[in-house]
Write a structure and sequence with these properties.
The complex is a heterodimer.
Chain A (H helix, E strand, L loop, with lengths): L4 H10 L18 E8 L8 E3 L3 H6 L11 E4 L2 E3 L4 H8 L3 E8 L7 H10 L14 H11 L6 E4 L17 E2 L14 H11 L7 H24 L12 H14 L6 E7 L7 H25 L6 E7 L19 E6 L7 E2 L17 E2 H11 L5 H4 L8
Parallel strand pairs in A: 1-8, 1-9, 5-11, 5-12, 6-7, 6-8
Antiparallel strand pairs in A: 2-4, 3-4, 5-10, 9-10
Helix pairs in contact in A: 3-9, 6-7, 8-9
Chain B lengths: L25 H12 L4 H10 L1 H9 L11 H7 L2 H14 L3 H13 L4 H4 L2 H14 L4 H9 L2 H6 L13 H11 L7 H10 L3 E4 L2 E4 L9 E3 L2 E3 L3 H9 L2 H15 L6 H13 L4 H9 L17 H11 L6 H10 L22 H16 L18 H13 L5 H14 L4 H9 L8
Antiparallel strand pairs in B: 1-2, 3-4
The chains are: A alpha/beta, B mainly alpha.
Chain lengths: 395, 441
């Protein structure tokens, strides 16, 4: 399906979209969320979703293919890495699916360039400039126009990724709720907030000045409202105690509390497995899979899962052939996972062929922007201004 | 905004001269202090103004003998805790005598970003930072070779597993992309050749070891030349490429001048660097005296990283603070020394500022001024400990922002102080520290 602006307007008419105008904290209309989880470092897709019957796989990976024996079958000759029991259960229930062969033409094997290409949704991306925006940042700008005060949040780290760089509305990051409170004598609080507001008048100085003024105002107005909203949450699942589990629980708190944020970005790092990959990859996929299983069950317990769509992706996959350090080097196309309700099938896309490689790497047959477009549609956001007019992948 | 005079076509690197109309004032001294010294007390900045621009820079470039920063070094390695190393380096950033050297070691720590998270050896990390101390202001060729043979780097980018017949491309790729040339200035074939050339550079007993049996002695084709190259050849051939001069010039301009340097500025500094035989210190000596460095466009054009921010705040206040507390505060704001997030280094400029980190920053200053939370004494700059209360606001703006405050901001501060009914030094400083300018470097 190729989306044109007119198609979008038609579908938007069916969705309960918020009207533009006043700032709103709690969603009055559309409250569908899009969550993006980035596996930083380049996840080895071939050892995540394993082609069980392809003899070329075992041949290319003399030691790393050992995981195949205990792979968790999901049909069509594919199995998940044995550490992904939680993900297997989600796929069997029809609330998770894998899309194979996702990437972009002329793959770039630099972490940073490829990551920025995914962040900006621009396969020709070269350098970050002051005017550069990320795809989630552009989506945040659309939601801000409709009146959302905090359309997006970067969770689990204080850094806001380029994916969230926007024009109109700075996107906050949130690591711990306790850090998000202003320290001041209670009797001076109101005067201080007024004071910060009076410093941030538009046109007061250069761009940098204005940017800092806006962020400071946003910080003060949001922190109090966030604290109140988060108080309404009681966990309905047990999360892993690692950093990623904590970030996922924070995500659930924000969604369940009805804070009104609809775009989220989280990162799980450590996937750059050049040497001795097996134990590290095993631990990472376990962290991912158990965390996601807890998240889905918590959101379901709060009757919130229906409005959430999650995308799990990485900047690239890894070389088909194992290197001599029992690791894998930077590759190209890879598998992404989508979580959400009413998914078509557990396996989507065409598996890239192991006998038709591009300089030792899997060839992409699915443009990552078509996945983005579908994710945006699921979240009720017009994909055209975000990723351009591109055919949305069906799922 | 651009004071580089476009009508007279002078080189952006021409030495800047103070004039009556455009003197070397507190604003310019503050700029020099922030960019080179990570801030300085008002007393020191006033001394710089009196000395004049030339002498102020000379003193920064040739600091003379100070306290021996190496006195804690062996203890830090003996303690063998990454926290001890972090606190030691934070102490040097805060109080080390040789300001430009400390600043450049911090620059290279970001440029050759290596994290303890993977290296897991305090001594190795300590020695890598000493490589930056030793070569950071010398010839880039020497620095690049020392880094390429540095055990922490050999481990960080997997060169310890890069051996004959089993090449690992990780270091080869990053030396080109992130350390010396920039993306796209090499081919995938160059990476494969360089990886083979670096085979055999190993670690033995925590030290560099050149294992000849593990080295691939075969012919390699690198940058169109063929020969039995080794790692030292790759370093030499890479550092001497014109693309490398452009790459480093841009990086130095982004750090010292402006986050988005213009093409002609990059070209001019690359030429200067080449003329200086790729000597970093000599290149900086020209850059820091230049019209470009003191241009309006450069002033407060950057955003403080967390480490810059906490160090600069404390130094501008003319105070001292526990390095451990500062290191922890910077880590909370997203910058943990000795543990950069990845080989690309830390985020830059606006990426540091979110509403969450803005709150952490304003809370940090509040804690600092009240002596709360960081095991510190309340900080009271000497200028504000006596004298007339009505002078305190002006002095506070000089301490924190070189007196560069718009009338509108001044009115807002006065209004805030009236509203709270307070005129104590901590409240005045907190108000001034809330100005957006305080976040700008």
């Amino acid at each position: 399906m190729k989306i044109t602006r007119r198609d979008w307007m038609k579908s938007a008419a069916l969705a309960p979209l918020a009207t533009s105008g006043t700032l709103r904290w709690l969603p009055g209309g559309d409250d569908r969320c899009l969550v993006v989880i980035e596996l930083a470092g380049g996840n080895d897709g071939l050892n995540t979703l394993i082609p069980l019957d392809d003899p070329r796989y075992a041949k290319a990976r003399p030691t790393l293919s050992a995981v195949r024996k205990e792979a968790l079958s999901i049909g069509e000759g594919f199995g998940l890495h044995p550490a992904m029991k939680g993900m297997q259960a989600l796929m069997k229930r029809g609330v998770a699916c894998a899309v194979q062969g996702v990437g972009y033409p002329n793959p770039d094997r630099s972490h940073f360039r490829s990551r920025d290409i995914w962040y900006t949704a621009d396969p020709g991306f070269k350098n970050v400039k002051a005017t550069t925006t990320g795809w989630l940042g552009r989506a945040a700008d659309l939601l801000a126009k409709q009146g959302a005060a905090v359309p997006g949040l970067s969770l689990g780290s204080l850094e806001v990724p380029l994916a969230f760089r926007s024009r109109a509305v700075p996107v906050p990051s949130l690591q711990r709720v306790e850090d998000y409170q202003l320290l001041i004598d209670p009797q001076d609080r109101e005067s201080f907030i007024d004071f910060v507001g009076s410093l941030a008048k538009p046109g007061d100085g250069g761009d940098l000045h204005q940017f800092l003024g806006e962020v400071s105002q946003l910080a003060l107005t949001n922190s109090e409202q966030l604290r109140q909203a988060l108080g309404r949450y009681r966990p309905k699942a047990e999360y892993p105690t690692d950093q990623f589990g904590k970030a996922l629980q924070l995500l659930s708190r924000v969604i369940v509390s009805g804070f009104g944020t609809r775009l989220f970005h989280l990162r799980l790092g450590g996937f750059d497995t050049h040497a001795r990959q097996a134990p590290a990859h095993n631990g990472l996929l376990r962290t991912l899979s158990t965390g996601l299983a807890a998240l889905v069950s918590d959101l379901e317990g709060h009757s919130c899962f229906d409005k959430v769509s999650l995308l799990v992706h990485s900047e690239f996959g890894r070389r088909v052939a194992e290197n001599r350090s029992q690791g894998t080097d930077h590759g190209a196309a890879s598998v992404v996972f989508v979580l959400g309700s009413e998914l078509e099938a557990p396996l989507l896309g065409t598996p890239p062929r192991l006998d038709d490689l591009d300089d030792g790497d899997l060839k992409a047959n699915c443009d990552f922007r078509s996945v983005y477009a579908r994710m945006l549609l699921r979240a009720g956001i017009d994909p055209v201004p975000v990723v351009g007019e591109i055919e949305a992948l069906a799922f | 905004m651009n004071t580089v005079d476009s009508q007279t076509h002078q080189s952006p690197l021409e030495t800047w001269q103070a004039t009556t109309a455009n003197p070397f004032d507190l604003a310019k001294a503050g700029h020099l202090a922030r960019r080179v010294a990570m801030g300085a007390s008002l007393k020191v900045r006033r001394t710089m103004v009196r000395a004049g621009v030339e002498e102020a820079i000379d003193r920064l470039l040739a600091p003379g003998r100070g306290e021996d920063v190496d006195s804690f070094r062996t203890q830090v390695i003996a303690i063998d805790k990454v926290g001890a190393l972090r606190d030691y380096r934070m102490w040097r950033l805060l109080a080390g005598r040789d300001r430009l050297r400390e600043r450049m070691s911090f620059f290279w720590h970001d440029h050759f970003a290596t994290s303890f998270q993977k290296v897991r050896d305090v001594g190795m990390m300590a020695r890598q930072l000493e490589v930056f101390d030793q070569h950071g202001l010398g010839r880039f060729d020497d620095l690049l070779l020392a880094v390429s043979q540095d055990p922490a780097m050999l481990r960080w980018l997997d060169n310890e597993t890069n051996v004959r017949g089993r090449p690992n491309e990780n270091y080869a790729r990053e030396i080109f992309e992130l350390f010396a040339l920039g993306h796209g200035k090499y081919s995938e074939e160059d990476i494969k050749a360089a990886a083979r050339a670096f085979t055999g550079w190993q670690i033995r007993d925590h030290r560099f070891h050149d294992s000849r049996p593990k080295h691939d002695k075969g012919a390699k084709t690198l940058f169109g030349k063929t020969g039995p190259f080794d790692g030292a050849d790759v370093v030499r051939m890479t550092a001497s490429r014109p693309d490398s001069a452009q790459f480093l010039a841009k990086k130095l301009l982004e750090f010292f001048v402006h986050p988005e340097p213009a093409k002609d500025e990059i070209t001019a500094l690359a030429q200067c660097y080449t003329d200086a035989d790729r000597h970093i210190g000599k290149t900086l000596s020209t850059l820091l005296r230049s019209r470009l460095f003191f241009s309006e466009r450069a002033m407060r054009s950057r955003i403080h990283s967390p480490v810059d921010f906490v160090v600069c705040t404390v130094r501008n206040l003319g105070a001292n603070a526990a390095p451990h507390a500062l290191a922890r505060a910077a880590a909370q704001m997203g910058q943990t020394l000795i543990e950069p997030p990845g080989v690309e280094g830390w985020p830059r400029e606006r990426a540091w500022i979110s509403s969450a980190t803005w709150l952490l920053r304003t809370n940090f200053t509040a804690d600092l001024l009240r002596g709360r939370g960081y095991h510190l004494q309340p900080i009271l700059p000497p200028e504000l400990s006596g004298g007339r209360a009505q002078d305190h606001l002006r002095l506070a703006t000089e301490i924190l922002v070189d007196g560069q405050v718009s009338d509108q901001s001044m009115t807002a501060i006065r209004h805030f102080l009236r509203e709270t009914g307070k005129d104590d030094a901590a409240t005045i400083l907190r108000a001034v520290a809330t100005l957006p300018e305080v976040q700008m470097l």
